[in-house]
Write the structure tokens for this entry.
Amino acid sequence: MRRLAALLSVLALLLPSPAFAGGFDTYVTKVTGVQPAMPGVRAVATSNGEQITVTNAGATPLIIEGYQHDQYLKVSSAGVWQNKLSPAVYLNKEATIGAIPNDANASKPPVWVKLNSTDHAQWHDHRIHWMGVAEPPVVQKDPKHAHLINDWRIPVVYGAQAGAITGTLSYRPGSHLGSYVTYGAIGLGVMVILGLQILILRRRRQTVTAG
């Protein structure tokens, strides 16, 4: 029986978890544009809202504001800089809201630290994904249909021109097919292992009897 338990443990590790098998509802993030249009500036985001990437191919600096309208990132064709005093530096390190050190201050003049020499910045932004522990009220009321949760915006400044990166956060009902396939694979694996274990026990009994 110990061998059976070990085999089951290995099987559980090899098979995908039902929680990630497509059986849960999803939130979809999408960038709709940069308003107003800015030469060389474009933005894309992963559909799950984990990351957003903003590119500025021009020499005019693009300032990306943090959560308190402070200067968070500066992007241009010469590179990417981060204001180390912006609270967003620390808030964006984790998927959930983390701690902010005492020396972070949105009201102080920015202290820029160069991160790289590329023309694009990539970061996790809490404004573009669902942050609630519970489902939104519209989803709780009608979880079987797609819904627009909200329109989001990230304020930016291009030279002296104020604007924003805009997008949407939507709810899309998940498919339960993945869960069925996963549970079916687990059940089949258990049946195979039990069959092998029974076969081994029978052969042992036959050997003992013959002896």
The chain has a mean pLDDT of 83. The helical segments are 2-14, 88-91, 137-141, 177-210.
